Structures are given as C-alpha cells and as structure tokens.
Amino acid sequence: MTFNRKLLRALAAATFSCLTGAAQAHFQMLYVEETALQRAENLEFALVFTHPFSGGPTLVMEQPRAFSHISSHGGEKIDLRKYLRPVQWQSRENRATAYRASIPRELVRSMGDHIFVLEPEPYLETEEDVYIQQFTKLIVNVGGVPGHWAEPQGLPVEIQPLNKPYANWTGGVFRAIVLADGKPVPFAEVEIEYLNHSVDFENNAFGQQAHVTAPQPAFNTLSTYSDAQGIVTIGLPRAGWWGIAALDIGTTKIHKGKSLSQDAVLWVQARDMK
Amino acid sequence: MKPLGSAQRLLTTGALLFYQAAFAHGPVFDCYIERDDQVKCEAGFTDGSSAAGRKIHVRDMSNKVLLEGVVGTDNTFTFQPPAGQYSVVFLGGEGHDTTIQSSDISR
C-alpha cells in the first residue's frame, strides 16, 4: 500500500471513527453458511464487498470477472458466472449491488475440498482515488476427506492456507502464506476482520445486532504483517467467520490510469468446542 | 521443568503415535445418483488415505448381499441400483464399516 493510501485511509478512518466509533476496512465477502459439510448440499453464496465488522457500508460490485469452482476430483475448474445474480444488499448503513449464487449439489457432491475463487472487477474507491481488486478464496469440504486445500490456485495474488480454513476450533491459530505471482511476499500488510453480523439470505441483508462490541476503533480491523517468509499467523478468538486480507501485493499497479491495489482475501471459519 | 528422560520421551511419543493412528483414520462414504440413474459411491478415509481395493456390498433389507464390488483407484464404485429398498456398505476395515440406506441416496 502506498504511503498516500495509508495516510488517506488513516485520516478517513479517524474521521469516521470520531463520528461513529467504527473504523473502515474493505473486505470482499464470499460467504456460505457452512464450509465443513457432512454431505454435499446446495450451496447458497453471498458475494458482498463491505466492511464485515461494522456490517457496512457496502460497496457497489460490478459483474465479477471470474467466479470459479475447483473440484475435489482432479482439480477441474468450472466457471460459475452463470449462477451469479445481482441483488441489492442491505447493510447496516446503506443498500448496494452485491451478488448471490445458488450452486447446485451436483457440482459439489464429491467428497473432499472444493475451492471457490472470486475475481471481482476493480472497485474505484473515490475517497482515495484508487482501484481495489480483492481476489477472494473460500474452501468448502465435504465428508472430512482432505484434499487440495493447501494448493495455490495460480492467482495474481493469493493467500495459501497452511491450516484447513474449514476446520478450526475457536481459540486456535491459523497460518497462511501471502503469495503474489506464486511467490511468498515478505512483510506484506495484512488486515483481519471478524464478520460481526449475521447474514440474512432471505432479505439479502446483514443482521441488525453486532455480535461483539469493539472497545476502541483499532479493534475493528486487526493489523499485522507477514514474516520474512511471507507467512501470516492469526488467532481465532471467537467462533464464526474471519477474513484475512493481504493488501496491495499485486504486480499490476495501474487500472484505467489510476493506482490499483490488488489484495488477496481468504475466509476462515472457526467453531466452538462443545 | 525437569527434562524428560529418553525412556519417558519414547513412551510419550509412542502414545501420541498410537493416539493418532487410532483416531486419524476414520472411514467416509457417500453415494449419489448419476444422470444415467446409476449409483456412484465415493469412499475414503479422513486422513486422505486411499480406499482403493476395499469391498462394497449392496444388500437387500434382509441383509442378503445382492452385489459385491471393489472401490476403484479413483475411490469410487458405480452400480445399477436394484429395485426396492437396499443398503450400500463400505467395508473399510475392522471397525470401519459404513452403511448408507437407499432412502438417503439422491441426485
């Protein structure tokens, strides 16, 4: 991330924090209710570009460039764009275009790991005058058979998990490697956010109640860096969804004449031991 | 903390290995109906080891074996389902048999 973008974000966050007590971090959500399935079932997806801790505002998504499924058998890549349908997503603060997708059971009924990859159209962040494009991964497992969850998918920017993203106990530790063009990125800036509101599929909305209250705006978006080997380590202190975003790590820096931040996002689900 | 002696270390390591061996290798099994109305079953183990070569039985409601097959190298077994109700049993090894009833098999 450029110093300019950092400064602008800090100023914007500080200003916003003074007004509402919330800080801003953009996260491309790629959400299903459950990633560790006993048996295959129809998967209902929500693709929302938003601020998951504060539950909004939600940012307008254009038609994604790619939405793919890499199957558990042989790594066959299936284009899922035909399943996408635009919706107006109600965040805690606004309504904006997001996408839903209903993926039939037939596509995901094989046991093992199913990797879903979203490549959105770059989003123009007018406050900062930069484009943001977040390559986002979600991994669903059927039946408990381990598969290719740890394999990189050849994206320009990517977070390669070192733990199964779908099998984590609350209180555990999650590790991953930040990659750009398949190579580790040392000391990449990484942001982590908890999905702090329920996802209401029926109304295409976030739930009204926040699960937790941050004691101070710095807790809304947690920040860290990958280490010298590009490895990032986070804790999972609460059950639910944790988003990890490595910022501005792509080699493509310009889009339509403006700065482009290519970020990598991975979603991790934690479950309580009970 | 007092360092562990070598014998104690060996015992601890052995116990951990046994624990992993006992609990990291559970059978998993599922069947679904393909487009040609054949039933395709997938078998495997939670540690990722192959089920190839393991037997599968298709049984009627009196437990009579109607069909016996072997899991292929792709960890699947496909068969023409019999008329009426039946069950499919994955013989995954001692204590590792898993059964699916035909009523739980869908597309």
Find the biggest chain interface. Answer: A-B, 15 and 12 residues
**Tally of individual helices of chain A:** 2
Low-confidence stretches of chain A: 1-23
User: What spatial order of strands do you see in the largest sheet of chain B?
Assistant: 4-3-6-7
> Do you know the CATH architecture of chain A?
Sandwich
Which residues of chain B form runs of ≥5 with pLDDT under 50? 1-23
CA distance, first residue to last residue of chain A = 41 Å
SSE-based structural type of chain A: mainly beta
- What is the helical fraction of chain B, as a range of percent? 10-25%
Let me know the average pLDDT of chain B. Answer: 81
Question: Domains counted in the coordinates of chain B: how many?
Answer: 1
Sheet-strand content of chain B, in percent, reads 35-45%
Q: Classify the beta-strand content of chain A into a percent band.
A: 35-45%
Order of helices and strands of chain A: HEEEEEEEHEEEEEEEEEEEEEEE
Q: What general outline of chain B do the C-alpha atoms trace? A: globular
What level of helicity do the residues of chain A show? under 10%
Short characterization:
With 274 residues, chain A is mainly β. Chain A has one domain: Immunoglobulin-like, CATH 2.60.40.10. Chain A contains two helices and 22 strands.
